[in-house]
Give the backbone structure.
Amino acid sequence: MARARAIWVNRRILHILIIRDLKVRYSDSVLGFAWTLLDPLLLTLVYWFVFGVIVARGSIDEQPYILWLLTGILPFQWTAHVLGDSGRLLGNDAKLVTSSSLPREIWVLRSVASRFIEFLFTLPITVVFVLFFMVFTDQKVSVTWWVFVLPLAFAVQFLFNVGLGLTLSPLCMLYPDVHRIVRIFTTLYRYLSPVIYGLGTLAGVFADRGWPDWLQWVYALNPLVGILNTYHAVLFPRNTDDVVALLSLSAVLSALCFVVGWRLFRRLEPRVLKEL
């Protein structure tokens, strides 16, 4: 509780660090903050071309497929960026981390919050595509009432990302190999989460191959399953099942990840400071 109070007392400094992080990140780029929009948009177009055109992926309930990808890739990138940042969160600002009296958890919160702001700035991409399909095509696209659950999904994913940052940042600092493993896992994690496919499609694969149903709940132990399923439900309600149950499970798992990360961070902090 003392650490939580200290973070609250220093919330203005956290705000300054978040703004600084956003300004510095693209300061040496010609396009600057525009990369926040271009990066996920280009990635989405590549996935759409490969899986939607060449491979012809996407069931009838996942059409238009590019919207399906946007509602999965954009939030996934938030978590992917946090995973990528974990290896340098503490090392990049070693002098400030060691010399200041700020709670060191602030550096994790800075990364997660700044990446969240970037994620929010990418949401207009989805809005533009939704309006395009509504106005210029015959495909039925509508926003469901699940849009009102998005703030809860944001909160659950924020908690999960903070837990990841608290867990991985000290481990990556003390054991450099962990950061390399995380980089490989991030790519694999995209395919282990419902980004390219939906849970309805996955259930069909399980049924065709005769796999037991309980394996789907093992799959759901990935917190991003419930979170991304909620994002998909906003535009694709027919290919989303058990939204409330899965998001509730993700909330519990995210809280557990946060608690484990918080305790691990506190335990490893003295060793990290010596290493810095």
